[in-house]
Specification:
The complex is a heterodimer of chains A (181) and B (185).
Chain A: H1 2-17, E1 32-37, H2 39-47, H3 54-61, E2 63-71, H4 74-90, E3 94-101, E4 104-112, E5 118-127, E6 135-145, H5 148-155, H6 161-170
Helix pairs in contact in A: 2-3, 5-6
Chain B: H1 2-18, H2 24-32, E1 37-42, H3 56-62, E2 67-74, H4 80-96, E3 101-108, E4 111-119, E5 124-133, E6 137-148, H5 150-163, H6 171-176
Antiparallel strand pairs in B: 1-2, 2-6, 3-4, 4-5, 5-6
Helix pairs in contact in B: 3-5
Organism (chain B): Flavobacterium silvaticum
InterPro entries (chain B): DUF4252
Protein name (chain B): DUF4252 domain-containing protein
Chain lengths: 181, 185
């Protein structure tokens, strides 16, 4: 009997754990709005001829995935915060900016690659519980430059995009070799 | 103990046997014959009125589309359990059948949508749109063509965005058609 239980458990394991990332559990929850753009989509967008600006298409080619989760629920916000904190601790993210505004606690983090401005992941968490606003968790992965983020926020209207824009501009400071666009 | 095991095994077999539709295509064919479902096949000429806003490249790209196959379930009082079981089933087809590659999905509470395709980076054999709204129903669109490219996909998104299918259930996915502007609404 034990064997049978074990076998069934083993059979179910991959179903439970396969392909799960830290945030996928929020996807499809009743109080959560999710947008997931897969690497395939970015690849396709980058390869299709279109009338989007070249600047934007070049950037799209450097992106691999986008996940955004928003919620108004306080309970889910708490869970998201705990998940975000855990993720920040384990994934090598560095803080880029931290803002508190209108009761919203905003954290913007990056995982850098070859240089300080080479970004592999941009991660944003907005805790909206205190200000009774949306809680937002955003993860954008790829291989892009911090300076590209402003192009992105202008083209795509993320929740909290204005903050991201500030963060990317603010960081240009002394290191930034390129001027403002 | 043995009888319990036997029972479990029987259940397993029965549940396997009861799964009548193995693929999304089969599912759509089966459902198209059921009275509660609305099913329609479009010829791409339906795009004609909308194509005026397209560039010549986009019009060219759209020529790769051969037909659109739509199936929708609509009800003002859709039972929650039925909604859940059917939409889960459809999502399973799209996520577990390895030929379908997901482009994106959106979920807003119980509503949502998904865009997937069959093919490779250059040639798309089939594009599948799936949309659901818990107080309306759900719908699937299969876009089939021999010569579809990424340009076809985005030209199609543009047409659908402008024109829509007129099927409420597809709203969540129509809104997501422009992934770059998902949040500009």
């Amino acid at each position: 009997m034990k064997k049978v239980v074990l076998t069934i458990a083993l059979m179910l394991m991959p179903i439970l754990f396969f392909g799960q990332t830290a945030f996928d559990k929020f996807d499809g929850q009743d109080d959560v709005t999710t947008v997931v753009v897969t690497p395939k989509m970015f690849k396709m967008m980058g390869s299709a001829k279109s009338d989007e600006s070249q600047e934007f298409l070049d950037l799209v080619k450097k992106l691999t995935s986008l996940k955004v989760f928003t919620t108004k629920s306080v309970a889910v916000s708490k869970e998201m915060k705990a998940t975000a904190d855990g993720y920040i601790k384990t994934s090598g993210l560095e803080e880029l900016m931290r803002v508190t505004e209108n009761g919203q606690n905003i954290k913007i983090m990056v995982k850098t690659g070859t240089s300080d401005t080479n970004v592999r992941e941009l991660f944003m968490f907005i805790d909206g519980t205190a200000g009774k606003q949306d809680t937002v968790l955003l993860s954008l992965t790829g291989n892009f430059d911090l300076n590209d983020v402003s192009t992105l926020t202008e083209e795509m209207k993320f929740p909290g995009g204005d903050k991201l824009n500030k963060a990317s501009k603010g960081s240009k400071g002394p290191k930034g070799p390129k001027g403002k666009k | 103990m043995k009888s319990v095991l036997l029972f479990l095994v029987t259940c397993l077999f029965l549940s396997c046997a009861k799964r009548e539709d193995k693929t999304l295509q089969e599912y759509m064919v089966t459902k198209s014959q059921e009275p509660d479902y609305f099913s329609v096949d479009f010829n791409p000429s339906m795009f004609k009125p909308a194509t005026s806003n397209l560039t010549s490249n986009e019009q060219q790209a759209l020529k790769g589309v051969e037909k659109l196959n739509v199936i929708a379930y609509h009800s003002d009082s859709i039972p929650a359990a039925f909604y859940k079981s059917e939409t889960t089933k459809i999502k399973k087809f799209l996520t577990q059948d390895s030929q379908y590659q997901e482009l994106m999905h959106v979920n807003s509470g119980k509503d949502g949508g998904m865009i997937s395709y069959v093919g490779n980076d250059e040639h798309i054999d089939e594009l599948v749109l799936f949309g659901k709204q818990h107080d309306n129903g759900f719908a699937i669109v299969r876009v089939i063509g021999k010569d579809m490219t990424p340009e076809t996909v985005f030209a199609l998104f543009k047409v659908i965005r402008e024109r829509g299918f007129g099927v409420k259930e597809l709203k969540p996915i129509e809104q997501a058609m422009d992934p770059t502007r998902t949040f500009k609404g």
